[in-house]
Give the backbone structure.
Amino acid sequence: MRKGFDDKLKELKQYLTDMGILVEKAISLTNKALLTQSIPLAEEAIQCDIEIDNMEKEIEDMCLKLLLLHQPVARDLRVISAAHKMITDMERIGDQCADISEITIFLAEETYINPLDRISRMADATKKMVTDSIEAYMKKDLDLARSVMEYDNYVDKLFLEVKSDLTELIHKNSDNISQSIDLLMAAKYFERIGDHAENIAEWVEFSITGHHKKLKSSR
């Protein structure tokens, strides 16, 4: 019976890895679409969001079956519960990639008022955070999970710099207001993606240690 459970747990981890790869792809497509103002790439990122939604439902079903049918011990229970929480954050990352892609489509015919290098660095950073979080989960690497949590500070710093740049452009020329707001929203979505990646890392920490700092602080 234990072997059957272990096989199912291994399958769950593989599905979670596959979902993580799809989320990484969505972030990459979203970033490239925004930089190049490519509608086809933006539409592909939106399609990724649909696939991510479907994967969330599959993995949620797997988690519930493991919990209900196998009555896992405490350690396994943490691994399954963490996976269930992680997919919620990954699904939201997919949603935010789709939101940014919608902005890309809206701005496709406009000339950008400012280089997007900081926004692009935000995207690269959040992709790294997702990649490292999933790797930390698979390898039970607590140090790697905690490094992801720290890395979110870098994403937050970049967002504040983007916000400052765009605010300055608005002050210089009121014609920049509309696009500045759109680009600021895109940056904000990437900042939220970083927050969700941090959440994933926190659930990885919980799966390893049994402690979750936000749960502890809310008591």
About this structure: The longest helix spans residues 2-36.
